[in-house]
Here is the input.
Amino acid sequence: MSATQAPQHSGYDIVIVGGAIMGSSTAWFLSQDPDFDGRVLVVERDVTYQACSTAHTNSCMRQQFSDGLNVRISQFAADFVKNLRSYMGGDTRVPELGIHSFGYMYLADNEDFANVLRENQKMQRAAGAATELLTRDEIAKRYPFYALDDIVLGSINTIDEGYWDGSAVFDWLRRQAREAGVEYINNEVIGMTRCVAGDAIESVTLKSGEVVTCNKVVNATGPRAARTAAMAGINLPVEPRKRFTWIVSAETPLDRDLPLTIDPSGVHVRENGGGTYQVGAHSAIDPAVDYDDFTMDHALWQDHVWPVLARRIPQFEAIKVQSEWAGHYAFNTLDQNAITGPHPEVRNFYFLNGFSGHGLQQSPAMGRATAELLVHGAYRSLDLSPFHYDRITQDQPIIEKAII
Ligand SMILES: Cc1cc2nc3c(=O)[nH]c(=O)nc-3n(C[C@H](O)[C@H](O)[C@H](O)COP(=O)(O)OP(=O)(O)OC[C@H]3O[C@@H](n4cnc5c(N)ncnc54)[C@H](O)[C@@H]3O)c2cc1C
Here is the structure.
């Protein structure tokens, strides 16, 4: 870690642990709330952000979820991204962003999964998403480059579903939050102390030695979330799971945009512009990994991913890897969905965890909702209480069937 920074004050209204997209979204929404003028400290252990999930993301959004709340969360993301400058007070330094809506193409090779897609589509359309179901012939007509012999159904939505510039949104959330008075420091939270009654965190301890008192604390520590919760004596079923990305160039690029295609094998590939494509996959054995383990699995590419791609899109027989990286999902082992809201007993400890593969697009809604809870004690826009921690202790998963 580069030189640590001491906090300017000995106490804060809100301490946010982790300053990547979730921490910064929360900080930004807090900084924009006219009813809030408290002190906010964001503690970030690596201000280069090079190892966090936010830096390794594929930066796409979709409305094809099986849970209606996830659909509405992504709809807010689309609105936020497309109107970023206006959300940010018309600040002309803020770029005008769009969404490259090539859509996600789910491919089903059996009737069971086709039925899941059919059910999902009904729910998604009722929630306002433009999901379409396509027969094999319809897919072939629109996207003649696929080999579809084994495919029985496809599902795609080309409105507000595709790539967006997550790093620009992250930069501006952070920049405006700081300009509005949120204090960010390069430091690490290494401990938490509960009050005598045991029902609240009264202070956090920093790696540099300072003990900082707080009224509320937010856990926005991505794949390290369980470690942070453990400092408060709380169990959290979140672990780092490795996800690999490859950028490839094709000798003969496709003649139209490639949707983010989810092959039945789980390998996914999408348009990346200029004759390049972004590919994602994980190993069949998918254990929790060390927080600092980002080594690639070269055999996975050679023996599994490339053959799958070449089978699904025969033009991809001739592709070349240009770059590759491994990143970590903050994998919620109960149900791969968000864990939000306050802890039921340690009442001032707030979760923003377990987003698995869809946290980037959830960051606007999650930051907004968490800021509402912190300031007003209740949700004012989207009610995220189904994602609260209680479902963990009650073992009531919200199963999301459309996980990538
Ligand atoms: C390969 C890959 C592809 C993905 N693709 C998509 C996608 O297409 N769409 C999508 O929506 N999502 C995607 N995701 C998921 C998304 O990137 C994450 O859900 C999101 O970035 C999580 O943000 P975060 O702020 O919660 O966590 P992180 O970005 O991991 O940030 C956590 C921060 O907390 C800091 N921290 C940890 N412990 C401490 C401590 N004790 N003290 C101080 N600081 C601490 C870390 O340094 C880090 O900066 C993808 C993820 C990966 C890995």
